[in-house]
Amino acid sequence: MTVAILRRTAILLASVLAASIVVFLFMAVLPGDPAQVALGVNATPELVERTRQEFGLDRPLLTQYLEWMGGVLTGDFGTSYVTREAIGPQLLDRLGVTLWLVGAGMLVALLIAIPFGTVAAVRHRKPSGALVSALSQFGVAVPAFLAGIVLVQIFAVRLGWLPSGGWTPPNQDPVEWLRGLILPALSLGLVQGAVLTRYVRSAVLDVGREDYIRTARSKGLRPYPALVRHGLRNAAIPVVTVLGLQLATLLVGAVVVEKVFVLPGMGSMLLDSVAARDLLTVQGIVLVLVVAVLVVNFVVDVLYAVLDPRLRAS
């Protein structure tokens, strides 16, 4: 198992290196001059050239990449072309907001998917199971931003129970932080929970047909205790795969949800930087998001070995 983890770690590092090269080259070939964008259309050619030298844009691409990656490895993502502020501290602050949102959204999704997916599988021939399947199918078709708008209309505008947007750091006011996080987390979690419910249902149905479940039932165990004691761990293996993909989807969905609820996260920072053509900031944000997805996939691979003893033996 240790050798497998080391091999996966090497693959992760190689993937991060390849991703950094792709992100850098993609930003480098985009049309437009960052120096010209930062100075405006009325800047003189001499001033633009001096600014290009200040930004280091006149040097070879390899030199620019090595300098950028050297800074990234030490937490220095460079200085914004537009605001002239350090990008690293801003990324760190915005990443904290996005991680809280994605983590809370995934918690909501799991709290929905595991019990309802299990019920839909165990009672798949009964009206209650069919109802859960129908509701999950409806939830899959609802985009996260639309769920957010509906939730704001109900719980913020009409009932006035929760704020419609904004962000309060948890160290300043934990209660207001939690109140402000509920609606965005529900917007992400309800949709992803509907998707996960269908996968949980399918996995539990497959496990329920196994011989060891029938043996447990023949010994007197009822359906739910038999699944809990003997089936959920095996059913979790395919669900973990989908869970890794859903975490990546949550990161992408957070971009829109942060705009809907005016949250100062990575998504809103990315959209603002794209609008301002602040390419170095966009480059750093995209790299962080790609690395986050790669790390999630790495964790999923490690969880396989934890959940399945056969993989540890191999």
Automatic annotation (TrEMBL):
Pfam hit, one: BPD_transp_1
What GO molecular function annotations does the UniProt record carry, in alphabetical order?
dipeptide transmembrane transporter activity
Enumerate the CDD domains for this protein: TM_PBP2 (cd06261)
How does this chain sit within the bilayer? Answer: Multi-pass membrane protein
Transmembrane segment boundaries: 12-30, 99-122, 134-157, 177-200, 239-262, 282-307
Localization, UniProt: Cell membrane
Keywords recorded for this protein, A-Z: Cell membrane, Membrane, Transmembrane, Transmembrane helix, Transport
Q: Which GO terms describe its cellular component?
A: plasma membrane
The source's domain of life comes to Bacteria
The record's section on PANTHER family has: DIPEPTIDE TRANSPORT SYSTEM PERMEASE PROTEIN DPPB-RELATED
Hey, which family's this protein in?
Belongs to the binding-protein-dependent transport system permease family.
Q: What is this protein called?
A: Peptide/nickel transport system permease protein
Instruction: Specify the taxonomic lineage.
Output: Bacteria, Bacillati, Actinomycetota, Actinomycetes, Pseudonocardiales
